[in-house]
Each structure stands twice: as structure tokens, then as C-alpha cells.
């Protein structure tokens, strides 16, 4: 008997024919003109079409069978790309291109060959190249070395990776864990018999931007003051640059906690609550508090330094109206920018490590690190029902009982019910992430990364 389909959350509970269900889901999404247009704006010119259903079923089924095998007690992990070898330039290679290596003869495409190749095709650096010759079924033509920069899109960071062409890419990250992409865009993921498609990115929501608007405005004001005091011509910064830099740092923190597999809780509080929360209060107790020194505000200090340095190095007296933004940052080869980016990365790792201690890591919305080991008061009223947001802005929600979640989630719900301006980020041991906030009159949570690449 087939499971049920939940259209709004873009989730399908399948029966036992997982690969076929996944292929059907992919073909169904490919019938959505808006989805196709987003993946390939010039669809009529990009030349991409899905393979025949039977061929794609063969590919997905073979990947699924390979995922159930073991390599010296380790799970089989690999990425494969379905594109003819001659379409990749022979002279390119990481970090700015793809390094193509063609086997002397085509290899059979089956689970045994994938099992043998997986250790050599390191998941984080290499893809297995697949071709689909007419009437012959899928075959393996060689390896495509991508380097590791592609992971920055998942973990947060400024380094750009060579864009994947508009073709099918399959990720296998564990037993029954498969994601199918067109280029870098995930179409659908299979994990534990559940098929999901990517949710919208909560960090791009208007409600988060509004919640942090005052803080970003304050940082921008400090930047303008430094600009005036410099006495030199600085480039103009994109007004959203500082907020995007902060967003990438939070992504890094979350990704490090997810990969640690121990879970964690981050609590962001309004900056005006800093003094109150560090004293005896009704909301939480923080076991390990940090004193009010510059080091507690290191992230904001680094953000301001990046903003000032970007404006300074791009300043041009012949073009005083020049504007620089995020793309200039990610492509910058300036040594000072590289050092500052590394420093932000290290702060993110440090904050993530604090979550290994039981309790919440407590941060102000100004990115001031207040302490860790925060215990949310059990005297706060419990929350029986919460709203599960089905879109980025939380305009569509569904009611969910809170009893089916863990201690961290329930504590976050209690806090956000009492402190309406607080934002909690709950990372589970299974790597799922919830962002929790009082929104439209209810405790609301967003699933930030439950439908990306499973196990990664």
C-alpha cells in the first residue's frame, strides 16, 4: 500500500519501491514550469532533458543497491555525474575547474563497480562520470576531480567553486540515502523511505532581516564613521554585505555542529537583554559566562574589519561611486581579506565547539558571545502545540504537537513563547535543524536543512 503525499511540505512517504518512487517524483517536478525555469532560465537553449524513465530508474536503482553495501565496515559514499566525457575541457582542474580523467575503456555500470570505485572517488573531491549511450544502458567513463570548494555552498564560506553544468548529479551518502540534483540544485532526496525536496532558505526570509535590521544598521554606521575618518577614497559597500557575512558565519556554526553528531542549541537574544540574562533571571541560567571584554565581541569586530578593508582596497579616486559587494568578497585574492575570512571561520568553529557542553550557547543578536551551558528554566510554561512553517515567511503553517520532540526542542519552544524576540536554532543528533521563533501569535519552527543531501 502506498504512503500519503504531503504537497505543502514537499514530502512523500513512500511504499517499498523507493527508487521508482524517487524517479516518479523527479519526473513530476520536471513538469512544473516554474521549477524548470529556475534551474535553467534559458530552458529552450540549455539542451538538458531528463533521460528516459527506464534509464533513470536503472541509474537510481543501481545507486540504491550500492548504498546498501559496505566497504570494510564503512558506508559506501560517492557522487556521480551523468554527462559525456568530451563535454568537459581536458586542460582544466581544481580549484577553478574540473579535472577530467577518462578510463581506457568504458566500465560496466552496476552496484559492484560502484562499490569498487567509491574508495578511489573520494566523496568530497571526485565524481564518477557516467554516460548514457543509446540502447546500451549507463556506463562509467572515468573520474571527474572537482576539489572541495563546492562544499562551501553547504557549510558557508566565501570561496567560489566551478559551477556544475546543467546535468544530473547523484549523491549517495549512506544506506538508502540518495539525492538527485540538476547541476547544483537538489531536485529530491531519499532518506529512510521518505522523499523530500529542498525547503526554502529561512536565512533569506524577510522576518530574519527585520529582526536583525537594527544591528546591521548599527554596524553600517560604524563603517561609515571609519570611512569618514580615513581621509581616503573608499568604495561604497552594498548595504546588505554585512548581513550576508553574518549569515554565512551562522551557516558555518550550524554545519560544524551537524557534523559533530552530538547536536546543540543556539539562542540569539535581543542585545538590550544582555545585562539581564547574565544575572539571576526567570528565563535561563548560564553556567559559563564570559566577561564584558572586546574578545566577547570578536565576531562583530571582524565583520567591521572586513567591511572596512573591502571598501579600502577597492577604493578608486577615479571612480568614487564604485560599489562592491559579496561577489567581490568571494573572489578577492587580497591577503588581508583571506586572513580575516580565516579568522571568522575560526570563531565559528569555536562557537560550535561550545555546544558540545550540555545546554545552550547564548549569543546576542549583535553576535556578542555571552556564554554557554545555558539551561532554560523549567518554570516557563510548557508549549503543547507549535506551528510548523511551510514557507520561508511562515505565512502557511500546520499545527504540530510538541510531545514528539526532544528536550532541546521543548526548551526552545518554552523560551520563545516567553521571549518573543528570541531566536533559537536547534540542531539534532540526526543532523536536522529547526529555527524557532514566536511568529504570528504562535511558537513557530522552520526546518532549515532537513531536505538537503541526507547524511551530509
From TrEMBL:
This is DAC domain-containing protein. It comes from Geomonas limicola. Residues 271-450 form the DAC domain. It holds the Pfam family DACNV.
Amino acid at each position: 500500500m502506498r504512503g500519503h503525499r504531503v504537497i505543502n511540505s514537499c514530502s512523500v512517504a513512500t511504499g517499498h519501491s523507493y527508487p521508482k518512487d524517487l524517479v516518479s517524483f523527479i519526473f513530476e517536478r520536471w513538469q512544473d514550469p516554474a521549477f524548470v525555469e529556475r534551474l535553467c532560465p534559458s530552458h529552450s537553449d540549455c539542451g538538458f532533458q531528463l533521460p528516459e524513465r527506464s534509464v533513470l530508474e536503472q541509474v537510481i536503482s543501481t545507486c540504491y543497491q550500492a548504498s546498501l553495501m559496505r566497504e570494510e565496515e564503512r558506508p559506501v559514499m560517492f557522487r556521480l555525474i551523468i554527462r559525456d566525457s568530451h563535454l568537459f575541457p581536458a586542460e582544466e582542474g581544481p580549484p577553478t575547474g574540473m579535472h577530467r580523467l577518462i578510463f581506457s575503456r568504458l566500465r560496466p555500470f552496476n552496484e559492484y563497480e560502484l562499490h569498487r570505485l567509491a574508495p578511489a572517488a573520494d566523496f568530497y573531491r571526485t565524481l564518477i562520470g557516467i554516460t548514457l549511450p543509446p540502447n546500451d544502458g549507463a556506463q562509467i567513463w572515468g573520474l571527474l576531480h572537482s576539489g572541495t570548494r563546492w562544499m562551501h555552498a553547504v557549510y558557508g564560506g566565501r570561496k567560489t567553486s566551478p559551477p556544475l553544468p546543467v546535468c544530473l548529479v547523484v549523491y549517495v551518502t549512506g544506506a538508502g540515502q540518495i539525492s538527485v540534483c540538476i547541476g547544483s540544485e537538489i531536485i529530491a532526496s531519499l532518506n529512510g523511505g521518505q522523499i523530500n525536496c529542498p525547503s526554502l532558505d529561512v536565512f533569506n526570509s524577510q522576518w530574519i532581516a527585520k529582526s536583525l535590521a537594527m544591528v546591521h544598521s548599527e554596524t553600517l554606521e560604524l563603517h561609515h564613521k571609519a570611512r569618514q575618518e580615513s581621509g581616503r577614497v573608499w568604495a561604497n559597500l552594498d548595504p546588505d554585505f554585512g548581513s550576508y557575512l553574518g549569515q554565512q558565519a551562522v551557516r558555518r556554526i550550524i554545519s560544524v555542529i551537524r557534523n559533530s553528531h552530538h547536536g546543540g542549541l543556539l539562542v540569539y537574544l535581543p542585545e538590550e537583554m544582555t545585562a539581564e540574562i547574565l544575572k539571576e533571571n526567570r528565563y535561563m541560567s548560564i553556567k559559563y559566562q564570559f566577561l564584558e571584554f572586546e574578545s566577547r565581541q570578536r565576531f562583530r569586530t571582524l565583520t567591521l574589519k572586513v567591511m572596512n578593508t573591502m571598501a579600502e582596497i577597492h577604493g578608486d579616486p577615479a571612480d568614487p561611486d564604485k560599489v562592491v559587494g559579496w561577489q567581490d568578497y568571494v573572489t578577492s585574492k587580497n591577503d588581508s581579506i583571506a586572513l580575516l575570512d580565516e579568522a571568522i571561520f575560526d570563531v565559528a568553529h569555536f562557537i560550535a565547539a561550545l555546544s558540545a557542553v550540555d545546554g545552550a550557547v547564548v549569543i546576542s543578536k549583535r553576535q556578542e558571545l555571552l556564554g554557554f551551558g545555558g539551561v532554560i528554566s523549567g518554570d516557563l510554561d510548557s508549549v503543547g502545540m507549535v506551528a510548523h512553517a511551510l514557507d520561508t515567511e511562515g505565512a502557511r503553517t500546520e499545527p504540530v504537537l510538541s510531545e514528539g520532540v526532544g528536550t532541546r526542542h521543548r526548551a526552545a519552544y518554552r523560551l520563545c513563547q516567553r521571549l518573543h524576540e528570541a531566536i533559537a536554532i536547534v540542531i539534532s543528533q540526526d543532523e536536522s535543524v529547526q529555527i524557532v521563533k514566536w511568529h504570528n501569535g504562535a511558537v513557530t519552527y522552520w526546518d532549515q536543512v532537513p531536505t538537503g543531501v541526507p547524511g551530509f
